[in-house]
Design goal:
Layout lengths: L1 H8 L3 H21 L9 H35 L4 H4 L5 H26 L1 H11 L14 H18 L3 H19 L6 H7 L6 H7 L17 H5 L21 H4 L2 H6 L12
Helix pairs in contact: 1-8, 2-8, 3-7, 5-6, 5-7, 5-8
Length: 275
């Protein structure tokens, strides 16, 4: 455990980039070999749009990173936050509690709020417009949403009182898990179901990308599935019935053109047509 802490305390940016690029590459190859859906689309064009948003997400987080680092340092120096108030315990238990709480506040809560607050939904909507969900879809976030997510992450670090090594560990796990559960891969149903009791599995997350309510407003989890089960936001839908996208933006010129995707948060709001 001490080795893990030492590594993530000083993890080089090159290693974090390798995790991101390596994950996309591995799941890209797997989904080509064992696809969940036989999707007929311009895969490289689709990937280009999503990689653009991945790059903007990286830029936003890089520019604002000093805020996160300062916040994590302040919590540990001033013994502020849930983890700082816990009694002494084995490091591995401390790490699990911290990762769970970061996932709850910085990811699940952030995701839930973005679906419920109309202004925030305008930015998150871009993620849901994807009609060909694959591993590159994991970081399909409007730059505005990247800022919103960063603020929730910082709030999570403040409330949890997590040291920076734990933040880097969580973000690394988040990258891989998101690429995994967005990937167009086919797992045996029993394996996917078993995984969904612990982490967000591919079939579980694909339900969230169904184009109609109430499925869009379900399965908000990022890494751990416990929060959806605990807060009754977990639901299932046979994969044969899943249709990707969002019913407010069904046309290709709306969801498959980079210029329009960037403009969507500033366009007239639309109400869901189906429920």
């Amino acid at each position: 455990m001490n080795d893990i802490i030492a590594y993530f305390s000083t993890i080089p940016s090159s290693h974090r980039s390798l995790i991101l690029i390596g994950g996309i590459t591995i799941f890209w190859l797997i989904e080509n070999a064992f696809p969940l859906f036989q999707m007929h689309y311009k895969k490289w064009h689709h990937a280009g749009i999503n990689i653009f948003f991945t790059v903007t997400t990286i830029i936003v987080n890089f520019v604002l990173a000093f805020i996160l680092i300062k916040t994590a340092a302040w919590t540990t120096e001033n013994h502020f936050g849930i983890l700082q108030w816990l009694p002494e315990m084995p490091l591995w238990i401390y790490a699990i509690i911290g990762l769970l709480l970061l996932d709850l506040i910085g990811a699940y809560l952030a995701h839930f709020v973005q679906h419920k607050v109309k202004f925030l939904w305008r930015f998150h909507l871009i993620h849901h417009t994807d009609t060909w969900v694959d591993t590159t879809s994991a970081n399909r976030h409007h730059p505005g949403e990247s800022v919103i997510r960063f603020l929730f992450t910082t709030l999570g670090v403040l409330i949890v009182g997590s040291p920076m090594w734990m933040v880097f560990l969580y973000q690394s796990l988040s990258v891989i898990t998101s690429q995994f559960n967005h990937a167009n891969i086919s797992l045996p149903k029993k394996l996917d179901t078993a995984l969904s009791y612990v982490i967000v599995s591919p079939n579980m997350h694909k339900v969230h990308h169904h184009y109609m309510l109430p499925y869009t407003d379900s399965n908000y989890g990022n890494i751990f599935s416990i929060w959806d089960r605990l807060f009754s936001t977990f639901t299932t839908l046979p994969k044969e019935q899943i249709i990707y996208g969002v019913d407010t933006h069904p046309e290709p010129e709306e969801h498959n053109k980079l210029k329009n995707l960037l403009q969507i948060p500033f366009q007239k709001s639309r109400s869901a047509k189906n429920s």
